[in-house]
User: Fold this.
Amino acid sequence: MINDMKAELERILFHARRILEMQHTVNDESKSALQIEHSVLKLLGKGDRKICPECGYLFQGNGWDGIDAHWRARHESIMPYSEAWPLIKAGLYRRQSCRLPSDLFSDD
Ligand SMILES: [Zn+2]
Assistant:
């Protein structure tokens, strides 16, 4: 019975992540999906996983392992890693991409 419930939660998690992967902007759907992901992870006893505050990417393994490569590859243009990391670590980082107009980063 418990295993059935866990399997059900894993399925919800899978769908929440698929939604997150498809979203490239912050909207109601991605916010809900992120909230669901957090809640389900907590229920499954995986609540201490770290999540990228900029895009919601879930880090696998221990704590923030891999954040620096992830950040440099995906968010370096928003804020240099050296500036972002102290904020992320302290839990003070706030998502930048929804505050800035997207055309700010286009080349033309
Ligand atoms: Zn990210």
Q: What stands out?
A: Residues 2-22 form the longest helix (21 residues).
